[in-house]
């Protein structure tokens, strides 16, 4: 159906015959869609299981204050919400598919539109040839042409139709404010006609019920009251359905007016229903099409037919061919018949795949928020790095102060006697070992102020950055010494020997010659004794004395070395720890990105399969 007028005008009976001729060709329309959907369900469940498992494992591993924990939690929340949404979509599809499966041998025509737009009246006319048939009229219809009414899902809205009301009454309720609150319809050979609750209902349950089932229609008849044609709320619904690739016929209902004139008695008023003039009807159709083209330029409207009609006028003038044609009902039946004969089979087989394609595309679209989360995943870590620069400087200074206290305590209260170099070296070796232990403690403590709350396995990560290495080396202890010569005077033996000789000589002379002999003997013996001895002399000895040591120098160099080593260690360690965190984040993102990309690729492959036939 194009923008031009309907090619063929037919009556209701001719329409029913055209559907009957195709009923056996409609079988099996769901099978291919079912196969594709089963494949999708398998990959969907696998995707949810894998990504949920990875996310929960990541959450368990990350400390409470890790900067990316919030992003992981957002991913988990989004994944859970997506899973729930997909489950709801699948459940909704299952309801529609189960409903559709009952009518595989017929074209499923779904009447949609606002409340009180003439849906139920049109349905009764198509079923019985009357908008409000009596039981007597129904009984006059041949059994082969009697519609089989059914009721399906129903809302709990008060005031709507009763339980299986259409099925029991064999007609749709008309006239009530909210006449329809269930999915109900009738079947004729090759045709299933579904009457739905109105859109923009006062009761959201009724509206949602209509939305759940309209997705599964082969053809949608969208009814619009001719007196309010082109309203935005209708245009939005029509554009939405067209966007899903639905085949739609727009019907402007109530295209008649009631006129009053005096009766033959000249006093009473006689009410007469007349069709709106054709020019007025044309302007209404043009207004609707122009409004759609203006507000939704991207929609293809070439195949959207727009027909003005009045079921009431057609009913009143069923035996007047010209009046019936003017009612527009012939155009409605002709359009449906042409569509059934020319496109009915293709539409019947394409609808399930088209519905599935829309469903798969919506699931693919649901992945878009994940990309936004991935894009923002690195930002918290980047922000924390920027803030940590000043913190690192402060931590280095505090660590250096703690090292200085430890070093000063040893050099001020440690070894006192420093005249034994070997002992001092032993003490310094012990202190160096203690210093390196303290050094690592301070480094870990200060780095911990920045990282311990945000890095999983922090202690092991920090330890791995400088284990098995001595980061502070102390200089060897040395004593500073000097060598001096010390003079020593040694007395000679000459004087001693002279005295001894004199004494011995005197004694000998006395014995031999008396006093005179004694004097001579003493003199001679003294001379001989003196000749045999030597005179006194001066000697010099060299001694080594301690004049100082390098203790203070070791202290200053130890402090400088420790400060420099701590600074280098903490900066290097911080860089390595940031690298670990970056690596962890990249691993998380790589896993998430890979899972999402794989799932989307599988969905796109299935989407391609829905478009092949």
UniProtKB/TrEMBL annotation:
Q: What top-level branch of life does the organism fall under?
A: Bacteria
Q: What's the short name of a Pfam family annotated to this entry?
A: Dynamin_N
Q: SUPFAM superfamilies of this UniProt entry?
A: P-loop containing nucleoside triphosphate hydrolases
What species is this protein from?
A: Janthinobacterium rivuli
This one is known as Dynamin family protein
Indicate the segments forming the Dynamin N-terminal domain, all copies.
178-250
> InterPro entries attached here?
Dynamin_N (IPR045063), P-loop_NTPase (IPR027417)
């Amino acid at each position: 159906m194009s923008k031009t007028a309907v090619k063929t005008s037919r009556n209701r009976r001719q329409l029913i015959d055209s559907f009957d001729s195709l009923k056996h060709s409609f079988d099996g329309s769901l099978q291919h869609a079912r196969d594709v959907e089963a494949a999708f369900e398998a990959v969907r469940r696998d995707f949810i299981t894998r990504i949920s498992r990875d996310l929960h494992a990541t959450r368990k591993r990350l400390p409470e204050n890790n900067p990316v924990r919030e992003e992981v939690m957002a991913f988990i929340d989004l994944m859970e919400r997506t899973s729930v949404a997909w489950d709801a979509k699948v459940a909704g599809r299952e309801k529609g598919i189960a409903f559709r499966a009952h009518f595989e041998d017929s074209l499923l025509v779904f009447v949609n539109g606002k409340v009180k737009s003439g849906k139920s009246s049109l349905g009764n006319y198509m079923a019985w040839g009357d908008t409000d048939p009596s039981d007597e009229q129904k009984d006059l219809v041949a059994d082969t042409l009697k519609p089989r009414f059914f009721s399906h899902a129903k809302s709990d809205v008060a005031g709507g139709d009763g339980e299986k009301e259409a099925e029991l009454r064999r007609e749709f309720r008309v006239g009530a404010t909210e006449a329809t609150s269930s999915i109900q319809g009738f079947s004729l050979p090759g045709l299933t006609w579904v009457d739905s609750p109105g859109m923009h209902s006062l009761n959201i349950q009724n509206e949602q019920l209509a939305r759940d089932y309209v997705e599964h229609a082969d053809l949608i008849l969208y009814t619009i009251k001719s007196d309010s044609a082109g309203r935005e709320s209708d245009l939005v619904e029509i554009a939405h359905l067209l966007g899903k690739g639905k085949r739609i016929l727009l019907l402007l209902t109530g295209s008649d007016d009631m006129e009053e004139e005096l009766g033959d008695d000249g006093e009473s008023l006689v009410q007469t229903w007349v069709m709106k003039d054709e020019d007025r009807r044309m302007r209404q159709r043009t207004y609707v099409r122009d409004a759609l083209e203006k507000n939704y330029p991207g929609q293809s409207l070439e195949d959207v037919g727009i027909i003005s009609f009045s079921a009431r006028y057609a009913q009143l003038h069923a035996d007047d061919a010209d009046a019936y044609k003017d009612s527009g009902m012939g155009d409605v039946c002709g359009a449906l018949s042409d569509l059934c004969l020319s496109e009915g089979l293709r539409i019947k087989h394409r609808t399930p795949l088209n519905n599935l394609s829309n469903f798969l595309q919506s699931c693919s679209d649901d992945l878009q928020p994940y990309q936004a989360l991935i894009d923002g995943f690195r930002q918290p870590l980047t922000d924390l790095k920027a803030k940590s620069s000043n913190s690192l400087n402060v931590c280095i200074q505090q660590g250096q102060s703690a090292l200085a206290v430890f070093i000063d305590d040893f050099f001020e209260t440690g070894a006192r006697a420093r005249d034994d170099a070997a002992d001092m070296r032993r003490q310094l070796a012990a202190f160096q070992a203690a210093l390196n232990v303290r050094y690592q403690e301070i480094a870990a403590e200060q780095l911990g102020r920045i990282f311990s709350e945000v890095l999983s396995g922090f202690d092991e990560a920090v330890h791995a950055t400088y284990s098995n290495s001595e980061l502070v080396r102390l200089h060897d202890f040395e004593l500073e010494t000097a060598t001096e010569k010390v003079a020593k005077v040694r007395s000679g033996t000459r004087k001693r020997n002279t005295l001894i000789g004199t004494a011995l000589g005197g004694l000998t002379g006395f014995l031999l010659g008396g006093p005179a002999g004694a004097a001579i003997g003493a003199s001679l013996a003294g001379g001989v004794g003196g000749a045999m001895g030597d005179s006194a002399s001066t000697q010099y000895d060299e001694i080594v004395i301690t004049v100082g040591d390098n203790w203070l120098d070791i202290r200053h160099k130890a402090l400088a070395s420790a400060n420099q080593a701590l600074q280098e260690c903490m900066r290097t360690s911080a860089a390595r720890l940031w690298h670990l965190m970056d690596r962890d984040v990249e691993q998380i993102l790589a896993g998430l990105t890979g899972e999402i990309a794989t799932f989307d690729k599988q969905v796109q492959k299935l989407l391609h399969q829905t478009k092949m036939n």
